[in-house]
Design a protein that fits this description.
The protein is of the alpha+beta class and 84 residues long. It has one domain. It has one helix and two strands, in the order αββ.
């Protein structure tokens, strides 16, 4: 009986730990891509907007979205760095 409890506890612990690992892995495989966001679709605050979803115009240079690594360099008008 104790072996079955140990097996169940191990399975539950593994299931609980898995989503955090997947999320951390997914986050590590993205990059910020500036200058390609539609108005109101940015992921986070900018120099002129207070939080996500508040960019004022399409292709706002300081607004960014997360994209898979390597994607931003393939998009016309996109930049991996924020404007100064």
């Amino acid at each position: 009986m104790k072996t079955s409890h140990l097996l169940i506890a191990s399975a539950v612990a593994a299931a609980i730990g898995l989503p955090g690992t997947v999320l951390a892995q997914a986050k590590a495989e993205t990059e910020k891509c500036y200058g390609i966001v539609k108005a109101g679709q940015n992921d986070c605050q900018t120099a002129t907007s207070s939080c996500s979803g508040t960019s004022k115009r399409d292709s706002q240079k300081d607004a960014w979205i997360s994209v898979p690594k390597g994607t931003c360099a393939k998009i016309v008008g996109a930049s991996l760095t924020a404007p100064k």
